[in-house]
Write a structure and sequence with these properties.
The structure is a homodimer.
Chain A: E1 5-9, H1 13-24, E2 28-32, H2 41-44, E3 49-50, E4 55-56, H3 57-69, E5 74-77, E6 81-88, E7 91-98, E8 101-107, E9 109-112, E10 116-118, E11 136-138, H4 139-148, E12 162-169, H5 185-199, E13 204-209, H6 218-229, E14 233-245, E15 248-255, E16 260-266, E17 268-273, E18 275-277, H7 279-288, E19 315-317, H8 327-348
Parallel strand pairs in A: 1-2, 1-9, 2-5, 9-19, 11-17, 12-13, 12-17, 13-14
Antiparallel strand pairs in A: 3-4, 6-7, 7-8, 10-18, 14-15, 15-16
Chain lengths: ~350, ~350
């Protein structure tokens, strides 16, 4: 009898959703995670809270992990990577590299949920001085600060009086090759801006943006409260450089609504870095022999009405391995991919008519 | 033995995805559709093509319908509505009103996929003269025209020389109570603008917008080609009124980038109307006793990491019944909801360990 196991590669939001979904309909599931813990980026990068309701990331992910592991038939391999794949849908052999050495496992289907990495703002664009100036940080750096419960200027440990976010760093940018919009940065920056306002009394917070892409409910869940309740100041503008001046940072650019140049001093500059395929996503595409799009994310060749199929039968993808994704996307596509993989697994063991 | 059937209410993109997903893991499925055909809004409203690749809506939905019906165990009740629901997860009784009269069926779980309706631009806001001027139409009216293969001015049957789209009609609007962003209208308008440029030689096409919310891949799939290849002209501006003048329409407002009033003559004005809950979504919330949010969509009380659960155990929701959704959202949340419902059904018939 062929294996009825689904392998889920990646233990973040999408992977956990995939595993729970596959297990809920009767498949055995093994989650293969390269790190020593589950939870993905929100845990690895010490996110303070998640969109849209500022719920603790640790608490929310803890609940998802517990719910997933409560399903009978779910097992987890930590500190383990997939080094090889042979066979075909219903009958794959995966080579695993884990703490106990190399091992082969038989699985019926695979879900790739290896996610994204944050764009490195020192790569190719040095405009904003991420590696030069202590007080230029990125979204995930501020998350970690917020989780610590204290927002300070890295240069001197003092609370900032003026903070700004620069949107679209590493997104919508032909020059660096990331032409897509990273989808979540507008929402995440607005969430963090709100949290900074709550954490630092009297602080002024600005967001410099091209378009505020607060799609769907984020408009009312995040964007309006940020403006009306928390007085975050949104400025449509293009920032061209960040320079040190008198112990602060001078942010230079153009206010495109007012149609004039601007030059504003800031104590802390937060770069809203975009999403790129994680090294694991690139590596798994290679190992599993599935197509990538020109940005390196997993290609979904079936179009908008079949979001999780890849170019290889029996291999599905979910979450940010497919491209920019919010948590809702990870839950939905994860749950769908898990079901699709389970269907292959159940069929392989003859459990379906 | 309890029923092992999943009822999917609504035969559009999300409902079909739910049904296929539930059936693929071994559940019996009945799709309950109030119209006489499957396919949902794209078919009912004669959409010409779907985002992002301008594929024929009829062809794409036809393929989804065929794939769904190919699963053993999927049956369809057309011209049928759900009039009542009693029981609990694993053991519901639904009252159906169909061509053969009233009937009760036993089901284990329910997926609500009853979708949205287009905002009625004559309701509460008369600014744009949708019911007054023949040449003011809405996105879905233009879709139907594009499907016919001929874009003309309804007033005189001639091809337009200048066409504009007005974004956010019935969205992001506190006055009418639709404070959310409808998510898809930027993409749909840009897709249609591209199609108008392809259909009418020499036509000028403008899109008046607040923010262009071309999230994720839509940036490169739709937005850049619309501008660079098809020369659609995007103007950040607020349109305050549309008036008839010399046989054309005068569009008045403010160009917010240039910071000056504008008054431009148009031959055809397309209102980018937003999404509202369909009457079926409101009705099913009532019949099934599930919570709605303040906009009338189905409430998803579990938050971003569990997108398809409703306030009633055993009842799940998918697609635009939950709020503004694109086709990818319908596929993913549909597939996930189908799996969740199947898990209840399989457990009810003792098919799971």
């Amino acid at each position: 009898m062929a294996s009825s196991t689904v392998a889920v590669i990646g233990g973040g939001p999408a992977g956990l959703a995939s595993a729970a979904s596959a297990a809920s309909v009767g498949a055995d599931v093994v989650i293969i995670e390269k790190l020593g813990f589950l939870g993905g980026r929100p845990i690895e990068e010490n996110y303070a809270s998640i969109t849209p309701y500022l719920r603790s990331a640790e608490e929310a992910m803890g609940e998802v992990i517990a719910n997933t592991l409560a399903h009978p038939g779910v097992s987890v391999r930590l500190n383990t990577t997939v080094a090889g794949c042979s066979g075909e849908a219903g009958d794959f052999t995966l080579e695993l590299d884990g703490p106990g050495g190399t091992e082969s496992i038989e699985v019926a289907a695979v879900v790739v949920a290896t996610g994204f990495q944050h764009f490195d703002p020192g790569r190719e664009t040095q405009l904003y001085g991420y590696y030069e100036f202590d007080d230029v940080i990125a979204l995930q750096d501020l998350e970690a600060m917020l989780k610590e419960g204290r927002v300070t200027r890295p240069s001197n440990g003092e609370e900032p009086k003026r903070v700004c976010f620069i949107q679209c760093v590493g997104s919508r940018d032909r020059q660096i090759g990331n032409e897509y919009c990273s989808k979540v940065c507008c929402g995440v920056a607005s969430k963090e801006a709100t949290e900074v306002r709550l954490a630092v009394p009297g602080v002024e917070v600005f967001i410099f943006y091209i378009d505020m892409r607060m799609y769907g409910y984020w408009e009312t869940q995040i964007y309006w409260p940020a403006q009306e309740k928390h007085h975050v100041q949104y400025v449509k503008g293009i920032i061209t450089e960040v320079l040190p001046k008198d112990g602060r940072l001078l942010v230079r650019g153009e206010d495109t609504t007012m149609g004039r140049p601007m030059e504003v001093p800031m104590d802390l500059v937060v770069l809203s870095v975009g999403m790129e395929p994680s090294p694991g996503t690139r590596k798994m595409a290679e190992v599993l022999g599935i197509e990538q799009n020109r940005f390196g994310f997993i290609e979904a060749p079936k179009g908008p009405l079949d979001t999780v199929a890849t170019s290889r039968e029996g291999v599905f993808a979910a979450g940010a391995s497919l491209g920019p994704a919010d948590l809702e996307d990870c839950s939905s596509s994860g749950g769908f991919a898990g079901a699709r993989a389970a269907a292959v697994a159940l069929s392989a063991r003859g459990a379906l008519r």
